[in-house]
Write a structure and sequence with these properties.
This protein is of the alpha/beta class. The protein is 33% helix and 18% strand. It has 12 helices and 13 strands. The longest helix is centred in the first third of the chain and has 32 residues, at 7-38.
């Protein structure tokens, strides 16, 4: 007969562990349920059985153009359409009222992991090598669409290392990027005024970038790419530097004209944050207006989301309460991000979905839409 003195304590410990996990699980479920009640969709018709991967079942008969816009540090409390009250976001509001907003879209707690998941369609434990490193040789979202006949373009914050070889290896025909190499680099230097911009395997000279604003140059390049590909489907990623710090004047601020970008990190001030949000929204509106001018808006899907929550130093009014940014956290307010899709030909207006979405969903969604 085996002694029981060693068995009983183990069984008791096992029972305690099971009980503990049961209690934690119950508390977690109750917490999530209570949180979900706080985020009721505002004034939109609820859509049942609609998910991100079935957008192409909503009226489209051919391959749409796709513009995938990723803001930087634009938390759920920022856009007006979610209930934000501190800023002006008419372009995002228009997209939401004339498209579909997803109320439960989740990123990772920080930017690069979210971008890595979006570009590869894989969770980070399957493809993370190091911060800011896109695994070489992988088949990414742009490779997929390029192989399906799409013209491809990347503008804005790259942060995937490797420069020209990596960008082209990821399937992008054209690019104008900030942060082409992760090491050594400083993403808070040369981000906005007189930007450090990399194009065609080299950095643009100061004679081209001096005094100019990065987001103006990015949208100009994107508009030119659209002009060159009016008669074939195109896919563009616009990875916006806005509204990540340094918080500095935009061209719409009177201080911009005399602002010396050499001192961005030392003179930055959160008082410029509202203007940066407004300018982000303005650039999105400019893209839509350009599509209109070319007769392309009807069959172009524009998706806006953000890589992670707002910086913790920023507090904003949201639905009558002051909300602090929760970037880098793992609570609901840290990983739940705004996500809106606008596509006149394929999406009925004023829709809302509570479908659970995360950043690995974009690749299979776009594959479905492109009939791959």
């Amino acid at each position: 007969m085996q002694p029981t003195s060693k068995v009983q304590p183990y069984q008791k410990s096992k029972q305690r562990i099971i009980l503990l996990f049961s209690v934690i699980f119950s508390i977690t479920i109750l917490s999530l349920s209570s949180c979900k009640k706080d985020f009721t969709p505002m004034g939109n018709t609820e859509v049942s059985n609609t998910d991100l991967g079935n957008l192409d079942n909503m009226g489209n008969s051919g391959k749409p153009n796709i513009i995938f816009i990723i803001g930087d540090d634009v938390g759920y409390e920022i856009p007006n359409y979610t209930g934000g009250e501190s800023y002006s976001t008419p372009s995002l509001n228009y997209m939401a009222s004339h498209g579909i907003q997803f109320n439960y879209a989740f990123s990772h707690p920080d930017g690069f992991p979210s971008r890595l998941a979006a570009f590869t369609g894989k969770y980070n434990f399957r493809n993370y090598i190091n911060w800011g490193i896109l695994p070489p040789g992988g088949h990414n979202i742009s490779n997929m669409l390029h192989d399906a006949g799409y013209a491809t373009c990347f503008v804005g914050k790259w942060q995937n290392d490797g420069g020209d070889a990596a960008i082209k290896g990821a399937g992008f025909d054209k690019y104008r990027v900030f942060l082409p190499f992760e090491y050594p680099s400083n993403q808070f230097k040369g981000r906005y005024k007189s930007p450090i911009i990399y194009e065609n395997g080299d950095f643009l000279p100061d004679s081209i970038t001096a005094g100019r604003y990065s987001e103006d140059m990015n949208v100009d390049y994107l508009d030119s790419f659209i002009d060159q590909n009016q008669h074939k489907p195109f896919f563009a990623v616009y990875s916006m530097p806005l509204v990540q710090k340094p918080w500095v004047p935009t061209p719409d601020d009177p201080e911009y004209a005399t602002w010396d970008p050499k001192y961005d990190e030392y003179k930055q001030d959160i008082k410029y944050f509202p203007s940066m949000v407004n300018y982000m929204d303005k650039k999105i509106g400019q893209i839509m207006n350009h599509l209109d001018a070319k007769g392309l808006r009807n069959n172009t899907l524009i998706i806006f989301t953000t890589d992670n929550a707002t910086n913790v130093k920023i507090s904003s009014m949201w639905r009558g309460q002051l909300v602090r940014g929760l970037k880098n956290g793992t609570v609901l307010g840290s990983t739940r991000q705004p996500l809106v899709a606008y596509w006149p030909k394929g999406i009925k207006p004023n829709q809302s979905s509570n479908t659970l979405v995360d950043f690995t969903d974009f690749l299979p969604t776009f594959a479905n839409m492109a009939k791959i």
